[in-house]
Amino acid sequence: MVIQKIPHVALLASPGLGHLIPILELAKCLATQHGLIVTIIAVTNETHQIKDELLSSASSSCPDHIYTIILPIDKLIFSGNETILARLSIMMRTALPSLHSLIHNMKRKPIALIVDQFGVVAFDKIAQDFNMFKYVFIASNARFLSYALYFPYVDYNNRGDYVRIPGCEPIPCEELNNLSSSPDAQNYQEFIQIAHLIESVDGILVNTWEDIEVKTLLAFRDEKALKLIVKASVYAIGPVIRSNLMETGGVKSKLIKWLDDQPNESVVYVSFGSGGTLSTQQTIELALGLELSKQRFIWVVRPPIDDNNAACLFESVGGTHELNNYLPDGFLDRTRDLGFIVPMWAPQSEILSHPSIGVFVSHCGWNSSLESIINGVPIIAWPLYAEQGMNATILVKNLGIAIRSDVNPKKELVRRDEIASMVRRVMMDKEGIGIKARVNGLKASANIALREGGSSYNALSQVVKKLLDDINDQTQN
Ligand code: UDP
């Protein structure tokens, strides 16, 4: 056994920008704040500009080695009906042979493998063959983790309206989208496998912090609650989010210059993450709702897709689109002075950190939620898929920093007058003042957690210390 004075760790990101972005940020923290040697391995089903830009910005700002595994399309066998979870699991299993030979050929092997929640399939073969410590980084919150781990113990047919996890707040089943699964569904075995693989790791890192999920985090430390299921420690190390490129010397785009000209907190920012798409009718209602609100807005628009809320998740982003084909007649002309339409993809961290932004209409992906909090921006929650419904409940009910529609946007149309009314409630009513104060309180608490000596900073230091202790134990035995 070669003694490694400075540990070398590998981080593995599954396909999807919502997975790659937090893995890159964690890699930067481990390298710059904790002095580790870091290799990033990104699994992807295609090459595209945004991913390449992200990877090259990571390489210029720290990690020592960056590799991309492009999945062999001919070996990716999909039936076409898979859920997102099943697709990701298939992709990650397909990547294993390339991952194995990549690590095999490294002169200095990583001592630990840190994967996101879909990369756990790499533990059986890769981590074992190369004798690596196994860590999982949940790029979501502790509530999602509690559900993922408790999943094998849920009696699907007798669970009622809530999933009740020991020590945690009940999770409404209607928030689960297709994270819920009957034992005969394709998702079921994938979930069970992920849960069992997470149970056997050396440590679990979660993109949350102590103050915002007190009860759930306590449940992971309670022998009568979730500690019964998972012995590994859970480290709340967040919020791990993208830094604002403008602050680090980026060039101002036309969009940011436009924002500079708007009054403080006057602009509604609308985006459904890296993959979210709306139906034709919903796209029209949203356009007319924004117009009706008479507020300024930036809208990251995608062509509508009628039967899939996550159509862009694994497909290319970018390109040009004929907006008049699907936006209401005359909308672009009527809103020319108030609105800024961005097709497909926008520089979100720059937008959210701009003082002109007043509210974020968001699909509640966890990265987007954290980016909103760290910038003190209230949210209008519009969950679409994956664990976004659960996230919306945390934002609306637990933290009081978001409002949401009375209808479930997955099942029903959110009407233009309700959209306009939600925007006005946050931007103009007294209700918005309370929400803004709470989100600013959370922003302060996040910054305290991240500072040297704060709970998240200390948690990540503990992970590094444990790694060093484990390496020492291993070399002595
Ligand atoms: N993002 C962005 N521009 C866009 C859409 C998304 O920069 O137009 C970034 C966003 O800032 C976040 C990530 O992509 O860091 C999306 O992650 P999230 O967890 O919010 O949602 P997902 O895309 O995984 O559903």
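^ uridine-5'-diphosphate complex. Residues 16-18, 21, 242, 271, 273-275, 300, 345-346, 348-349, 365-368, 371 surround uridine-5'-diphosphate (CB under 6 Å). The chain has a mean pLDDT of 91.
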